[in-house]
Amino acid sequence: MLRTFPIAMVIGPVAGSFFVRDALVTTTLLLLGKSALYYLLLLVTQFGPVGVIVGLYGWRVGPRANPSLWRKAVALYAVYTVFGVFYRVLEQYAVYMFSHIFWSLAIGMGTAHLLSVVSERRKGWLIAGLGLTIAAMPLYYGVLPGLVRSAGLADETFGIPQVGTGARDGLVYYLNPNKRGYDAPYKFGRETLANAPPRSVVIAEWYNDVDVALVLRYFQQIEHMRPDVEIVIWLLEEPTNFDSGIAVRRIEAELKNNRPVFIASLNDQFYDASSLKKKHCIVPEGNLYRVYPGSPEASAAQGLLCIK
Fold first, then answer.
1. Angle value at C-alpha 203, between 201 and 209, nearest 5 degrees
2. 8 Å CB contact between 269 and 258
3. 70: buried, middle or exposed (CB in 10 Å: 19+, 13-18, 0-12)?
4. In 170-244, where do the E strands start and end?
5. Average pLDDT of span 182-187
6. DSSP letters along 106-141, please?
7. 3-state DSSP call for residue 229?
8. What is the distance between the alpha carbons of residues 149 and 153, in angstroms, rounded to a whole number?
9. What letter does residue 156 receive in the DSSP assignment?
10. Residue whose C-alpha is closest to residue 298's, from 283, 284, 281
């Protein structure tokens, strides 16, 4: 990981700038409400309805059942949850995982108290019911993406970024933790580099298109695949104030050098894709978006199906 992505170069300044900008400068009640709702959705996704109910019960009975543990759990849960609500980044779900640890403690406190107050005859049924609930969680995770999609929701609803031209099912990836046999990133990276024309340039700013950037860099840095392909990710450019003109100028320069140019996404903030589509022909190709020089009209005359 460190060879693929030098964390020490970027994580401190970037984490600090995001927290200061998002939490202390641009925060509004509406944004906080959306962030809190997102947390509740993730909580239900993580633990299921039963886990949420038992956790709430654990918070309620904790002061009587185990006051010392309860005080520590409440304090740490509050710290991590509030931090997560304020820290609005693309991978916000990962920040919430820390608070979920202490929700698990609440579930434990609730379960322990239930077992201490029910009769011996009912205790067996309670243990069996909770055990079945835990055993059913993989099934719950498996059907959840389909249920969400049937409700008319999609990746875009939750702000899940697309990888390349759509190499990932975001709902399945984020809602179902069962990754046994999941090799989509490996296939994406190997196919993308293997099919790239010689001397290609891939524009993938590391924050906006982190999946593309890290996967492709893995194959170059670790498996030493296709060293002739240049992957531009701008590690030292602060993403909060990234100037899309940097990307546009690089794209124009490489097109003049007759190098095949690809961009990882059609993002306006980082690549000014709207302007690029007016000036050049952008076509889905090789899991990414290839930028062909020349106007869309001229490219269409050559048989290219340009994205409008």
1. 145
2. no
3. buried
4. 201-203, 230-232
5. 90
6. HHHHHHHHHHHHS-HHHHHHHHHHHHHHHHHHHHHH
7. coil
8. 5
9. G
10. 281
Cβ atoms of 93 and 42 within 8 Å: the answer is yes
Residue 36: how many CB atoms within 10 A of its CB?
Answer: 14
d(CA 296, CA 206): 28
Which tens digits make up the pLDDT trace of 119-176? 888 888 989 998 999 899 899 999 999 998 998 888 888 778 888 898 888 888 888 8
Residue 303 has a pLDDT of: 78
Q: Is 226 helix (H, G, I), strand (E, B) or coil?
A: coil
- Supply 130's token pair: 């909770």
Taking CA atoms, 266 is separated from 36, 135, 158, 243, in Å, by: 29, 42, 18, 15
Sorted by where each begins, the domain ranges of the chain are: 7-117, 170-301
In this structure, what token pair is assigned to residue 248?
A: 């546009």
* Cα-Cα end-to-end distance for the chain: 37
Contacts of 7 (CB under 8 A, 6+ apart): 1
d(CA 163, CA 160): 9
The pTM (predicted TM-score) of the whole model is 0.75
* Residue of 131, 107, 105, 127 lying closest to 118 (CA atoms): 127
